[in-house]
Amino acid sequence: MSSPERFWTSRLRWRLHGAWQWPAFALFTLVDGVVLDLLPPLGAARMDLILGVLIATFANLFLVGAVAPFLTRRLSRRREAALAASGAGRTGPAPPHEVEREVLQDRVGTALLAAGLVAVLVSGLANRPVTVSETEATEEVGRELRSYVVRSGSEELNRNLETANTIRLSEGYFRACIARDDRRRYVCLFVDTTSDPTAVREDRDARPNSAFAR
After folding, report:
1. What is the pLDDT of residue 138?
2. Does residue 14 sit in the same domain as residue 116?
3. C-alpha dist (Å) from residue 200 to 56, 156, 171, 193, 213
């Protein structure tokens, strides 16, 4: 085999060794989107799959387009400095320098994509107990509100039960309201789900939650 043929064969072989980044990008982006949909991170509400994939796409593009090249340059320089300091030479046919760097960047990018998925999983799992707790508290508020309506015996409140809405004022503390027939006045309750049993207190303020929260 002639020298040019050996050169291109070696170049192709090294490129194939580093051909993992973009297939990994497609796979990790899809998986990230699914995880973001099922396990939204801290401080985020439930998002759909399309939004999750879009967020993952931009985040992963930043990883492979900005972070990976930066880390590759640092690692490449450190490796070259270590070889120069030790005086160790390369054994076997060496690939072109730019190809070797491309392979290194490919592997760094793939590792960053994997690390990104781990970060998304950790954040989502950390948020899960908070989400479950918040859901349970909201359900408790709904039960207390329905019980209040039943105890009151008010036909007006009973027929307007579908207008009920709740806002969270603090951790475990809510304000729940039901509209009266005129839809201008509301019957509201303060519900503290952190106490045992749950504490319920009527609010004399007849404003809806939309006005109360301003």
Report:
1. 79
2. yes
3. 43, 20, 15, 9, 19
